[in-house]
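Predict structure. Chain length: 224.
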Amino acid sequence: MKYYPIHLDINGQNCLVVGGGAVGQRKVNTLLGCGAAVTVVSPEVEPRIEQMAEEGRIKLERRTYTTSDLDGKFLVIGATDDNALNRKISWDAGRKKMLCNIADVPDACNFILPSIVHRGDLIIAISTSGSSPALAKRLRKDLEAVYGDEYGELLSVMKAIRQRLLSQAHAPEAHKPLFEELLDGNLVHLVQERDIPGINALLQKVLGEGYDFEELMATGEQAN
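Prediction complete.
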């Protein structure tokens, strides 16, 4: 199987998770983190899922799954320990031409979920095409050690700089050498070391006066 890599915007989309155990809870957390409107259907659920429902963060239906649960949903994730039920969810979703993921059953999915390293706007997705989740997990841990929180901060700064340049009617193609010069100036290391004077000196050398790290950070974070 050759999968087509894609990053999907699910902000505000109605998404369904069938299954309220530990796996279902992890899927709910990821969906919420991407801004989805989540419904969970399961007779039994983890305490954390119940708490999220009480807080109004998700909709919870404490009952068994029915095909009509897919109505109006953008995607569905099957996370039960019942293979027959998972297969039914997959078949129902296929008939409706919906996005469907069944946890740990690649052949019942039309998309699979990668292992993820998340640092602010930086998202590194690792997939073995379902061949070895253990290897994907190991690679994720290796990458987490290489790409720390400084990369999220770096992207907040880069985003704010890009927005400011665009507001000044700079042609987008003119930005590339400026950003490359910032990266070649070891900006990420300066951010990692919290060397604010060094960061500001580099920003002003490449971009001119009026660029301040802390101000750019605040602007970039507000844009998220």
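Summary: The first strand starts at residue 14 and ends at 20.
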